[in-house]
Amino acid sequence: MITLNKLREFEEYHGYYDGFYMQKVKKGTNVNSDNDWSLIDNLRGAVMLVIKNLASKEYTEILNKKLQENCDSEKTIEYLKKLAKEEWE
Q1: pTM for this one?
Q2: Which of 50, 40, 33 has its CA nearest to residue 77?
Q3: Does the pLDDT of residue 58 top 80, yes or no?
Q4: How is the chain split into domains, by residue range?
Q5: Which of 10, 30, 52, 58 has its CA 20 to 30 A from that of 20?
């Protein structure tokens, strides 16, 4: 289940898994599991497609269902959408 804390950790590393792994996972201080990280990354990418109007209505509906199933609250979904709007290098 994706939570605000997990999204904040993802944001802290701008989605850069290697940095997250080296600094958090190796030390055992991570909030996200590998599966959580991958799910956040995939959902963020899917939300980006919707925001840019590159997704069909059906895709958007499926995504909304996935967000409801995988996020613990509407606040978490909104935060994920905020992250999808950010441009990271």
Answers
A1: 0.92
A2: 40
A3: yes
A4: 4-85
A5: 52
